[in-house]
C-alpha cells in the first residue's frame, strides 16, 4: 500500500490526478446520463458548487499553513442568521455586517490559536461552538424566512449575467482574488513557506503569527460570504443552515491535492476538488445512493485523499 | 519477556501519574467552588432529586469521556465520538425488542453493539497507524462515516426501543439512582483498572510522555495505538447504549453535540492535549464541572443554547491553561 502511494507521489502524476479524476467522473456520469452534459445542467452544477467552493477557499488558506478550521459551517450559519435578522433594517449593509462578523470571528480564532498556542483544530472546534451558540441565541433557535420586501436585496445573488448565474460569478471573483492573494502577494509566499517548514520560515524572519492570523481572518470572511450566498439561494437564514457543509468543504480542499501537512496546494486545486465533490454527489444521486449515506462516501474519500497527499516526512511522529 | 517488561516499566516511570501536581487539583477546587456558588444562589441545588438529575446528565458524558481520555493521553484526538455513539445506538435499537422489526436479541444484541463499537475504533486505529494519517483527520472522516451509516440504516426514521432491560437502564433505580448511572460508574472502575494496573495503561502514558522514547524502549507503539482506539470505540458503544436507553429510541441525531461535551469535559478536567498528563479520575471531575455548570445555568434560567457557547469558551480557557508551552515549539 505504502509503495503504491510512494509511486503516485514521486512521478508527478499526483499533481494531475485530481483533474484527471474530475474529467473521468464527468465523462462517466455523462455516459450514463447524457442530460448531465447539457449547458443548463452544467450551470446548475456550477451554482451548486459555488457555496462549497467559497467555504473551501477560505480553509485552503489555513490548510496551506498546516492548520485546520473546523468552525466554517457554524460561521456560515451565523452569517445567514445575521443577514436574515438585519436585512430589513440595514438593507445592503446587512451583507457588510455579516461579512465583517466573519472576519472578526476568524481574527478571534487566529488569536486563540497563535497567542494562546492552542492547536488550531481544538481552537476552531471551540470557536465553532461559540458561533453556533450565538446563532441559536440570536435566531431564537428558529429558521428565519425572508419577507418579500427583503428578497428585493437578494437580486445580486439570485440573478444572472449573460445567462450565467450570479452565484457562479461571485465564486469566480472569489477565485480571482484568492489566486492573486496566493500567487502575487507576500502573504501567499509566506503561507507556502510556513506550510513547507515553519522553523525555517521563522528563522528567515517571516512573521509567522501574523500570517496565520490573516489566514484565519480570510477563512472566517469566506465562510461568512458562503452564508450570505446561502441566504440568497434559500431566502432564509437558520442556525443549522450550513451544518452539513464542513465535511464536503474540507474534502474538496484535500481531494484537490492540497496536503493537510501544509505547503503544497493552490486555489485551483480546491476548485477542481470542489467540482469533484459536486460531480460525485450528482453521480450518487443518479445511481440512487441514499442521500443520508452520501456522507459515508465523503468520509472515505476524505481519508483516502489525505492518505495520498500527506507529506509523511514532515510528521516523524503521527499523533 | 522479563527484560522487555523491565525496560517498559523504566519508560513508564517518567509519567507524572503519581506525582502530586497542583494543576491536577485545580479542576477539583473549581468544581467545589462552583457547587458552593450555585448553592448560594439556589439552595435547591443540594437536594437529593437534583443530585439524581446531575448523575443522569453526567452518565453518558462520563462514559464517552473515559474513552476519549485514553486517546488524549496518547497525545491524539478522537473526533469520531458521535459517529461511534450514533451507529451503536441505532444498531442496538434494531437488535433488541423494538417497534420496527421482530428482532429480540436482548443482552446478546448489546454484546454485538460493543463489538461494532470496537470495530469502528479498530478501523480508526489501523488507518491512523498503518497509513500514518493524523488521528484528527481519520476520526473526522469516521465521524461522518458513522453518522452516515446510521442514517443509511434508518433511512431517516427513528426506531422505538421496547426492550424492558434497555429501558430499565434509564427508568429502574437502585439506591435511588438509575441503573445507567451504576453502569457508568462500573465503566469508570474498568477504566481506572486499565489505566493503573495494566501494561496498556502504562504504555499509553509512555506514548503521551514521549513517543520516540517509548518506541526506543521497545514499546509496540503501533499496536498500543490501535488497541487504545479500539478500547475508546467500546466506551463510545456503551455511551450509545445509554443514550438509546435514555431517549427510548434510536435515531441519527442521538449523538448531536456529544463530541463537544466530551472534549470539554476531558480538557476541563485537566488532561493535557499534548498527552502524558491527566487521568480518568480527572475526567470524572471535568464531566461533573460541565454538568454542574449546565445544571446551575438551568436553575438560574439561562437558555440551553447559551451553554454550547460557554462550553466553547471553557475549552479555550482550559487548553490555554494546561498546555505545556515549553514542550511545543510549533503549534499547528
Structure description:
The complex is a heterodimer of chains A (about 325) and B (about 325). Chain A is mainly α and about 325 residues long. Chain A has one domain: ABC transporter involved in vitamin B12 uptake, BtuC. Chain A is about 75% helix and about 5% strand. Chain A has 15 helices and four strands. In chain A, the strands form two sheets. In chain A, strands 1-4 form a two-stranded antiparallel sheet. Chain A has a two-stranded antiparallel ribbon with strand order 2-3. The longest helix of chain A is centred in the C-terminal third of the chain and has 27 residues, at about 210-235. The mean pLDDT of chain A is about 90. Chain B has a domain at about 55-255. Chain B is built from 14 helices and four strands. In chain B, the strands form two sheets. In chain B, strands 1-4 form a two-stranded antiparallel sheet. In chain B, a hairpin with a 2-residue loop joins strand 2 and strand 3. In chain B, helix 4 runs antiparallel to helix 5 (about 105-130). The model of chain B is unreliable at about 1-20 (pLDDT under 50). Classes of the chains: A mainly alpha (about 325), B mainly alpha (about 325). At the A-B interface, helix 5, helix 6 and helix 15 of A face helix 5, helix 6, helix 12 and helix 14 of B.
